């Protein structure tokens, strides 16, 4: 069978001692940084990105994927233990998980999260192996109009999960697109927005932008929050779920996995959407809905599985279409480009070892998380209890070293400082920077596909509405935007983010 | 009647968007615009910047018309010190080397915290951290950064 052969190829790549080691180091580092409160996966990956530069492409991507899962798992740990979700998708975990921790059941909550994530990860990995080739085949039929429409949809979808006012998020997309224009226009050779600085002629570096806005900007914003994090640093006991627990969590895990796998493929932060969806689904199906919010184990199992399944399947559009569905995938694309790989439908055929190796290592990474993180929980608890004022100078220095090492220029370090101020400013003004990063990565691609689509259509904009796939995608984007603008949905969306 | 800002966050993000959009338009119109069939270098940027100007204006109007949350206190000290810390790292890295850059920029960053006191513990910690960084990044990962910068070149060569 084809899939079997492909998976075996993946096993042969990812189970080499070196790559297993990179996967291992990635998951551990990702968890270690991810548990630090206030550092979401984006900041974690951006910070750790430079250590993968010297590696061969397969190892670099395997390590990055490991960092990603680690960061996500670390984020859940922090959410459960200290009720400080680092990203939207672990907000839901914090609701019941933290209640469990307060009742002295932190161990149960953590192991449920780990087991749920592992089962979800395993199933989602298989789904990727089955569906990615199919989607890549479809993607080869995509013309420039379809790609452009898909990107528009992705950008609109990204604001669904962005906190803050809708208008602000839409504006951030435009700012991101505009920042993506900086540099030499590949078609005409015209220097755009470089202000005569030769260092800008290759464009802004996305690492500089990401670390400035997500790393430095967040630190400045966090300085004024002096919250107490010592709450849950007592010993975590009772790690393994009981037989009774298993009965309670199995169905939520499977339901969460199904929901997450589907929503994760959709552009625009599907993982977060999936965990919200799974939580309300479990609450509705539960025999004990009054327990939700008071520490229901189902309320941890479902969303965590959904979240992890979504995180896995969000690799599908990235690997097959070369389109990021969220800002983490935007970073992964950036990393691939640094490694000299142009993401897209051809990766699977031109670099099968890389493609399948990455997929199998996803599963390996999930297994490592399960096996290693439960025993290491004491270490993570210690990391959480490090006071922020010791931590942030270290984070700043890591960011500075990292950003310098991308291009070996101090220019980038200064750029990061500027984007840090900008990141603080937009946070203060209720505009979330995640859509900006996505738009920044998509900007040059969007321009290129728009140019090509219009060239083929001789300048006729109706091309996007005549071609059925593109028309469908545009329609979905318009409907999505319209629903977001509906007063009732808008209110609900703002309520959800109020709780953060 | 004086104009009153009712929703500060809307108003100021509007100003920001308007400024960025206007700048984008101002510089963008100097690039060849082309036609839809043959998009020039200015085509996409001008459209994006134009949309940004519109969004900015809408946000400003909303900020003037609708009551909204205030921006709240701005941590100028934090902005200044954190930025200074990053800039100091950039300035010092080449001439003074990694160790000095880390210690100085670490001290500046740490002083953004009110509870920070300069003492031997802080210095010792920073030097130890700098040594670890040098080991991991330069010796271990082989990043092309010099541990001691060009200013010290005469001392050990």
TrEMBL record, chain A:
The keyword Repeat is annotated on this UniProt entry: no
Keywords: Membrane, Transmembrane, Transmembrane helix
Top-rank taxon, per record: Bacteria
InterPro entries to which the protein is assigned, alphabetical: DUF112_TM
Transmembrane region(s): 20-49, 118-140, 152-183, 203-224, 321-341, 353-381, 388-406, 464-486
Lipid metabolism among keywords: no
Residues of the DUF112 domain: 20-438
Protein name stated in the entry: Tripartite tricarboxylate transporter permease
Species per Swiss-Prot/TrEMBL record: Devosia aurantiaca
Source taxonomy: Bacteria, Pseudomonadati, Pseudomonadota, Alphaproteobacteria, Hyphomicrobiales
UniProtKB/TrEMBL annotation, chain B:
Keyword Membrane (UniProt): yes
Keywords linked to the UniProt accession: Membrane, Transmembrane, Transmembrane helix
Ranges for domain DUF1468: 12-144
InterPro entries with a match to the protein in the record: DUF1468
Spans through the membrane: 12-31, 43-66, 78-111, 123-156
Alphabetical list of Pfam families matching this protein: TctB
Protein name: Tripartite tricarboxylate transporter TctB family protein
Natural source organism: Devosia aurantiaca
């Amino acid at each position: 069978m084809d899939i079997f052969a492909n998976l075996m190829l993946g096993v042969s790549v990812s189970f080499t001692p070196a790559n297993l080691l990179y996967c291992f180091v990635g998951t551990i580092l990702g968890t270690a940084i991810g548990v630090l409160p206030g550092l979401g996966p984006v900041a974690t990956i951006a910070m750790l990105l430079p250590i993968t530069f010297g590696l061969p492409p397969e190892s670099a991507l395997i390590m990055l994927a490991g960092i990603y899962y680690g960061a996500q798992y670390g984020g859940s740990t922090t959410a459960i233990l200290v009720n400080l979700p680092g990203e939207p998708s672990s907000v839901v975990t914090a609701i019941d998980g933290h209640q469990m921790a307060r009742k002295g059941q932190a161990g149960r909550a953590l192991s449920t999260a780990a087991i749920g994530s592992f089962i979800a990860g395993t199933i989602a990995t298989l789904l990727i192996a089955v569906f990615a080739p199919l989607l890549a085949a479809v993607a080869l039929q995509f013309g420039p109009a379809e790609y452009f429409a898909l990107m528009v949809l992705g950008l609109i979808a990204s604001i669904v999960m962005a906190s803050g006012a809708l208008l602000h998020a839409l504006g951030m997309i435009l700012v991101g697109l505009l920042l993506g224009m900086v540099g030499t226009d590949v078609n005409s050779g015209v220097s755009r927005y470089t202000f005569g600085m030769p260092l800008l002629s290759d464009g802004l570096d996305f690492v500089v932008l990401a670390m400035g806005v997500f790393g430095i900007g967040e630190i400045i914003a966090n300085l004024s929050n002096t919250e107490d994090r010592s709450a849950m640093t007592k010993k975590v006991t009772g790690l393994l779920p009981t037989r009774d627990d298993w009965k309670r969590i199995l169905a939520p895990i499977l339901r969460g996995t199904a929901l997450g796998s589907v929503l994760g493929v959709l552009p625009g932060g599907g993982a977060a959407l999936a965990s919200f969806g799974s939580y309300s689904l479990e609450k509705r199906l539960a025999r004990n809905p009054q327990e939700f919010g008071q520490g229901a184990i189902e309320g941890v199992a479902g969303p965590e599985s959904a979240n992890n399944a979504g995180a896995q399947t969000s690799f599908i559009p990235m690997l097959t279409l070369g389109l990021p569905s969220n800002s983490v995938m935007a970073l992964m694309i950036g990393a691939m480009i640094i490694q000299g790989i142009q993401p897209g439908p051809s990766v699977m055929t031109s670099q099968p070892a890389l493609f399948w190796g990455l997929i199998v290592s996803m599963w390996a990474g999930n297994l490592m998380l399960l096996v290693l993180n439960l025993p290491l929980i004491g270490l993570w608890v210690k990391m959480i209890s490090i006071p922020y004022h010791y931590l942030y100078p270290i984070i700043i220095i890591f960011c500075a070293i990292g950003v310098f090492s991308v291009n070996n220029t101090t220019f980038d370090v200064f750029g990061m400082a500027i984007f840090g101020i900008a990141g603080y400013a937009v946070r203060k003004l209720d505009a979330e920077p995640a859509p900006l990063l996505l738009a920044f990565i998509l900007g040059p691609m969007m321009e290129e596909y728009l140019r090509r689509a219009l060239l083929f259509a001789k300048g006729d904009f109706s091309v996007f509405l005549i071609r059925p796939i593109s028309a469908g995608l545009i329609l979905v984007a318009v409907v999505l935007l319209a629903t977001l603008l509906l007063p009732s949905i808008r209110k609900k969306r703002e309520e959800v983010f109020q709780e953060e | 009647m004086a104009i009153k800002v009712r929703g500060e966050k809307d108003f100021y993000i509007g100003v920001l968007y308007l400024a960025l959009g206007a700048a984008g338009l101002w510089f963008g119109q100097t690039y060849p615009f082309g036609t839809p069939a043959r998009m020039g270098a200015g085509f996409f940027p001008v459209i994006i910047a134009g949309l940004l100007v519109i969004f900015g204006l809408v946000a400003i109007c909303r900020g003037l018309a609708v009551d909204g949350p205030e921006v709240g206190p701005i941590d100028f000290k934090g902005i200044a010190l954190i930025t200074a810390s990053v800039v100091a790292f950039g300035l010092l890295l080449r001439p003074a080397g990694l160790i000095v850059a880390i210690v100085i920029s670490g001290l500046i960053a740490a002083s953004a915290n009110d509870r920070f006191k300069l003492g031997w513990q802080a210095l010792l910690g920073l030097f130890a951290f700098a040594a670890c960084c040098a080991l991991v990044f330069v010796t271990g990962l082989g990043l092309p950064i010099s541990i001691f910068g060009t200013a010290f070149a005469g001392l050990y060569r």
